[in-house]
Design a protein that fits this description.
398 residues, alpha/beta, Rossmann fold, nine-stranded mixed beta sheet, two-stranded antiparallel ribbon, globular, disordered N terminus, serine-type carboxypeptidase activity, Peptidase_S10
C-alpha cells in the first residue's frame, strides 16, 4: 500500500466515526393521516445538546395561529420520565387529535383540534430526556441521565433553539408540562433564571411556569393528596375518609398503626378499580408495550408510564381512553410518518432491552422504559418557592 494512502484512509476512518451533522429544521406542511395541508405552521428538527455523546433532542414546533411575533412561546414537556413530546401535541394542548375509530389496518387518521393552545401561543413539544420519542444519542453512555443532567440539556436546547430562531427571543416564554415533568419544569425554570442573572447565556425572556397533575416529591403531597381528592370526587365515602383522618394523622403513605393500614388498604383497593389517568373512563389494559410491575414505592411514585419495550400486551378496546395511545404507536412507526417528520437514520444502537433497529431511532414507543435514569431531585418545592418569591408567575392545575 502506498505511504500516501494511509493518511487518507485514517482520515476517512475518523470521519466515519464522527456524529452525523444535524440537519436544518424542516417545515412540515402535510402529515400522513391528515386530510389536506396542515392549517398551522409545523416545524420539526434535532438540536445537539451534548457533543461528547452525540446527544440530539427532537422537537415539534407549532407556531401561534394568532400573532406569532408577540404571542408567548411555551416549552411543553411530557411526563414519564421519557414519554414523547408528541403526547403533548396530540393528547394534551396541541393542534391535532387522533380520530377514534376501529383500527382496520390502514394508517390512523388525524383531525384538527380547534381548542389547541396554539390558538394563542407558539409551542415547542420536546422529546426529553434523551431516548424519549425520536431523541437519541450516538454513544450509549448518553442515555445515562437524570433529573439534573436532563434539565441542563433542556437549557442547552433552548439556548441553541432561540439562537436559531431569534425572531421569538423577545416573546414572553413559559415552561409547562404534566405529571413527572412537574418535577423538572421548576428546576429548568430556575436554571434559566440564574443563567439570565449571571449572563451565562443569551437572555431567555422567562415569565413563569405551569404544571398539571405534577409530581413534586415522595414525602410531600403527591400521594397524600390522593385521599382528600378521592373523597372530594366521590370515590371514597365519608365514613372511610373520616376513619383515615382519625387513624392516620395526615400520613397516608406510611401507615403508623394497624387501623390506619386497614383503612388505607381498603381505599387502595377501591382506587385500583379505576383507571387512574382518567377516573371517569373504563379501566382498561395499557397500550402495548406492557406495563412493568414495580414493588417499590420509589418506582410506584416516580413513573407516569412504566413500559418495557421487549414485551407486548393486548391493545385496549375502542371505548378506552388509551385506545388513542395504541393508535399513536401505529402512526409514529409508519415509514410515511417518519419521512414526513424528517426522522434521522443511521447506525443501529443497542442498549439493554431497547433495540434501536430502524436507524438511530428504532421502534417509537409513547413512553419508554429500560434506559438508566437518576431521580436526583427529591422535590421541586424549593425551586417553586424560589421562582414564585422572585416574581415569576406559576399555574398549578389538575
Amino acid at each position: 500500500m502506498s505511504f500516501h494512502v494511509l493518511p487518507l484512509l485514517l482520515l476517512l476512518h475518523l470521519v466515519a466515526r464522527l456524529p452525523a451533522s444535524t440537519p436544518a429544521p424542516a417545515v412540515v406542511t402535510h402529515l400522513p393521516g391528515f386530510d389536506g395541508p396542515l392549517p398551522f405552521h409545523l416545524e420539526t428538527g434535532y438540536v445537539g445538546v451534548e457533543e461528547e455523546t452525540g446527544t440530539e433532542l427532537f422537537y415539534y414546533f407549532v407556531e401561534s395561529e394568532r400573532s406569532p411575533g408577540t404571542d408567548p412561546v411555551i416549552l411543553w414537556l411530557t411526563g414519564g420520565p421519557r414519554c414523547s413530546g408528541f403526547c403533548g401535541m396530540v393528547f394534551q394542548v396541541g393542534p391535532i387529535n387522533f380520530v377514534v375509530a376501529p383500527y382496520n389496518g390502514s394508517l390512523p387518521q388525524l383531525v384538527y383540534n380547534p381548542y389547541s393552545w396554539s390558538k394563542i401561543a407558539s409551542i415547542i413539544f420536546l422529546d426529553t430526556p434523551v431516548g424519549a420519542g425520536f431523541s437519541y444519542a450516538h454513544d450509549p453512555k448518553g442515555y445515562d441521565v437524570g433529573d439534573i443532567s436532563s434539565s441542563w440539556q433542556v437549557v442547552t436546547f433552548l439556548d441553541k433553539w432561540f439562537s436559531d430562531h431569534p425572531r421569538y427571543a423577545s416573546n414572553p416564554f413559559y415552561i409547562g408540562g404534566t405529571s413527572y415533568a412537574g418535577k423538572v419544569v421548576p428546576l429548568i425554570a430556575q436554571y434559566i433564571s440564574q443563567g439570565n442573572e449571571q449572563r451565562r447565556q443569551d437572555e431567555i425572556n422567562l415569565k413563569g411556569y405551569l404544571v398539571g397533575n405534577p409530581i413534586t416529591g415522595l414525602r410531600f403531597d403527591d400521594f397524600n393528596s390522593r385521599i382528600p381528592y378521592g373523597h372530594g370526587v366521590g370515590i371514597i365515602s365519608d365514613q372511610l375518609y373520616e376513619a383515615a383522618m382519625e387513624n392516620c394523622e395526615g400520613n397516608y403513605v406510611s401507615p403508623m398503626n394497624k387501623m390506619c393500614a386497614v383503612v388505607i388498604n381498603t381505599i387502595e383497593n377501591l382506587i385500583s378499580e379505576l383507571y387512574e389517568e382518567y377516573i371517569l373512563g373504563d379501566r382498561c389494559v395499557h397500550d402495548a408495550p406492557k406495563p412493568v410491575k414495580n414493588d417499590t414505592s420509589r418506582n410506584r411514585f416516580l413513573s407516569e408510564e412504566q413500559f418495557q419495550l421487549s414485551k407486548s400486551s393486548p391493545h385496549p378496546t375502542i371505548n378506552c381512553f388509551n385506545y388513542r395511545y395504541y393508535l399513536s404507536n401505529i402512526w409514529a412507526n409508519d415509514h410515511r410518518t417518519r419521512d414526513a417528520l424528517r426522522i434521522k437514520k443511521g447506525k443501529n444502537i443497542f442498549l439493554k432491552e431497547c433495540l434501536h433497529s430502524k436507524g438511530t431511532i428504532g421502534t417509537w414507543v409513547r413512553c419508554i422504559k429500560g434506559f438508566p435514569y437518576a431521580y436526583d431531585v427529591p422535590s421541586s418545592i424549593e425551586y417553586q418557592f424560589n421562582l414564585t418569591t422572585r416574581g415569576y408567575r406559576a399555574l398549578v392545575f389538575r
